[in-house]
Amino acid sequence: MAADYTEEQLAEDLKSKEYKYGFVTDIESDKAPIGLNEDIIRLISFKKNEPEWMLDFRLKSYRSWLEMKEPTWAHVHYPKIDFQNIFYYSAPKPKKKLESLDEVDPELLDTFKKLGISLEEQKRLTGVAVDVVMDSVSVKTTFTAKLAELGIIFCSMSDAIQKHPELIKEHLASVVPVHDNYYAALNSAVFTDGSFCYIPKGVRCPMELSTYFRINEANTGQFERTLVVAEEGSYVSYLEGCTAPIRDENQLHAAVVELKAAKDAEIKYSTVQNWYPGDKNGKGGIYNFVTKRGLCEGNGSKISWTQVETGSAITWKYPSCILKGDNSVGEFYSVAVTNHMQQADTGTKMMHIGKNTKSTIISKGISAGKSQNSYRGLVRIGKGAKSARNFSQCDSLLLGDQCGAHTFPYIEVENQTAKVEHEATTSKIGEDQIFYCNQRGIETEKAIALIVNGYAKEVLNKLPMEFAVEAQKLLAISLEGSVG
Amino acid sequence: MSRLLEQKEDFLREIGQNLNGANRSVFEGLRSSGEEQLSKLLPPSTKEEYWKYTKLTKILKGTYSPQQPVIMEFLGESDEQNYIRNWEDMEAEEIASLPKLGVTDRKEEHFFDALNAARFSDGFCVYAEGDAARFEVYENFRGPGSVSQKRNLVVVKKGASLKLIHRLKGAARGAFANNLTEVYVEEGAHFEYIMIQDVQGLSQIGSIYVEQKSNSVVRFHTASLSGDLNRNNLNIRVNGENCESYLDGISLGVNANHIDHHTIVDHMQPNCMSSENYKGIFYDQSRGVFNGKVFVRQLAQKTNAFQSNQNILMSDNSSVDSKPELEIYADDVKCSHGSTTGQFDEEAVFYLRSRGIGEDSARQLLVQAFLAEITEAIQDEEARDELLSLLDLKIGSE
Amino acid sequence: MLEIKNLKARIEEKEILRGIDLKINAGEVHAIMGPNGSGKSTLASVLAGREDYEVTGGSVSFDGKDLLDLKPEDRAREGLFLAFQYPVEIPGVSNVNFLKTAVNQIREYKGLEPMAAKEFLKMVRERKDLVEMPSDLAQRSVNEGFSGGEKKRNEIFQMAMLEPKLSILDETDSGLDIDALRVVANGVNKLRTPQNASLVITHYQRLLDYIIPDFVHVLYQGRIIRSGGKELALELEERGYDWIKEGAEA
After folding, report:
1. Cα of B225 to nearest chain A Cα, Å
2. Would the CB atoms of A442 and C105 count as touching at under 8 Å?
3. Buried b / exposed e across A303-339, counting CB within 10 Å, b at 16+?
4. What pTM, to 2 d.p., does this model score?
5. If A412 and its partner were Cys, which of A83, A380, B94, B369 is the partner (CB 3.0–4.6 Å)?
6. HSE (CB half, 13 Å, CA atoms) of B317?
7. Which one of C82, C90, C105 has the shortest CB-CB distance to A443?
8. pLDDT tens digits for C68-107?
């Protein structure tokens, strides 16, 4: 249980003061030339041996991207990105089909160990099926065979394009259209890999499915694409984790995640986002511009997003639910921590279309250092969303007087029978709470870690066990040195 | 030529320029900066965040009769200490001794602010030094298509106390008003402002800019009871310590009326509190908007800010957009907001009915109870009673 | 164990403690009584190290160490425990997790190994019976949603867990009914050993029926104006504070 994460473990973790995922793996990689144009896209498509329709999809996306403008409405500031100074394709070498872990480059395996996701161990002990995406290319998907017995498809996006073209054609970009926004269009043009997951009718996926993303190469953009399709009455819980090495320059991560739930299906999607946040002075770090959207298509379907955001220099991310089916349910649970010079503009959108649809939003923001942390969320009750319900609670906690915490909710109600409730509070961490801990012999830094974890508990409890523990550690580590 | 530019030119031509008694050299600076801004700016569209939920097409495409005067009447005893006057009736030196219009902020940066600066035709100046000043203003709208652009100034001197009741009354199909009021509340002063908007057929944009100094208390009550479109921009800069600011409002939407309350409370200094409470009832196809923004600047430690917006939809075709926002850069603060939108508590209706009260009366009672919190906050008894009976009348007829 | 010499402290511009002298030896129970506003809770806060108060003079030594020189957590680690008058709520942090962190940080300070989970839980089970804590209180968040009585019991439970040398009970009786008071007092008495000491701060004599003090001090206007044995408390109960005040002011 998450609560059993002891202070001994925490103390252990706190000893490593720096971003501990900041190593670079020395693996030779196969890169496309820097920059972006139609030829690069053709090259990506060629390297991946893609069918014609996929290339067309990419080119169409690229052309609409050219027409679009970078969004500027978020409460974040950063220098203009030079999209021609990014490598759009980088694959670890040797690039050949891997059948077992023995064939994986030992350096790579070492990387996974440092990430704390020894594939073998995971395989043996936890039964988590893992897909690892490194610099945009899926390296290894475990457990595929066992899942296949149940008819579950869990593979890299590249494999899916080759092996399940009919499913990809049907579902890809059906939740996030290519022209949805600037970064979604860019992703659609250049994505190099990602994960695909398909749960057939009536099947409950017996294990957590998991993807780890890692950016390794310098100046490389990561554009992964994830698609999860849950057929009628099925269930799946999906986890993703992210890390990147410490680099002085900024790196771009523009992913797209699409979820689709048919009648009575349920998808639980959890993220622990720990991209490199940049150093204390704001040098380096990942620009995390991600589009995540779930469509509750069938009646009685449910999509639940849980996220713990501690990394990235800039985060721009609004995991959303389109509640189209009657009685469908959308949930968003978020903890976002910013420290030093980090900026986050994150939240959700709940679009109520069907009758008796329900959504819950619990957001906990924690700002420290000189960071800026914004919640931005939309709750929209459409005209036909009879008896729709929403409850939102957005709390912000401030540590120090140099940071900012902002709340921008948008509430749009067009149906009389709806009931929408939104609450938000912003306050400083309780000095009396810290003193109380001090009086019991607990030092201030640890007291803050305890209080912050308690504050975020409502959200942490929603995470699958192994993630909850990691998330607790991350919270404590990200707030290191935030109080003098 | 872009559509907006075209609309702008037609609109400016339609509303005309009728400076009346406010055509005075003392205002030349303001007018020219207004003109200059106006030449650069386009009318706002829903693409702008600030106007996201309010369409102005109807105003921009209106047909106007600018020669129709909108008459202002004042009530209350003016003397040396406290007075209310038209610009026309004031000596140039007297005007020069007051805060200069338009200098506190870059007010002309919004289209309608620039328009007001360039073309305001009249307005009132209220000055209070004493501790119990009270004035009333009536603006009477009559002719269809009439246009009113008033520029008002309120100065509440150090330690003084002022109550101002401002009513927009009458009926004028397709009329347009664009009033701008600047308010200076000095150290330790108290100001209560009650605005009642009740003109059938009027589309109005009303902007108020307030500068609050240490230890002062302001109370703004805005009741929007009728009119095709009411857009109220209330901006308070809390620029002193230990201030209190209370903002509240009632939106009573009927027919296809559109009521939009935009507020900004900018806490720049420590130890202040602000409290906002806006409630709306929406019948028929009416639409309500609330956008409240609280800034807490880094210096403004120990700020206590509260925002609440509650809405009841009375019909299937009514709708509400609510955006309570907090932007906080200081840490030792307590800020919170809440927003609820829904329909009536049917349990309560049932309870009343089971006690023998007819359904309509039950709903009426509950609406009054819902709004009571706002009316009770009005300190001026006369104004409160007036608003209560107006509400009774209107809710009774729904 | 504790020696306070001419201690003066103020909050903002207001001087509250105006020269306190007090010596507490191991095995003793001292009571501090006094009317409202006399500085009782300030004394407790200053000893625990609350930063709102500024010490303007005097000294406090605790087992030979300069107490005023220590951070609040180090005071606790040295064995000073304050049972708060108004214990704060810490949402989401379970009592057990909280105490485990505290116990092990104190152990670390003393150069001891952290306590094994099993041993710790055993200790929790034993000690919670001392104050008749329902077992679910240990799992619940620190003080969150506790009744007044539960909060006070929880304070004594924590005291039992942390085994302090000197416990300061700040108005522990306030807001308690007679049964809760008895439970709390019983807990305190059971924890009494010849090696530790207590300082009981109270406005009423009531608590002292259950926790029998060796010494009673009357605090008034920031000074101890009279000290005596336990009879002094009874006398105060009978005659009120006025007669001593008059003596002090005269």
Report:
1. 20
2. yes
3. bbbbbbbbbbbbbbbbbbbbbbbbbbbbbbbbbbbbb
4. 0.84
5. A380
6. 9
7. C105
8. 998 888 898 899 999 988 888 888 788 888 888 888 888 9
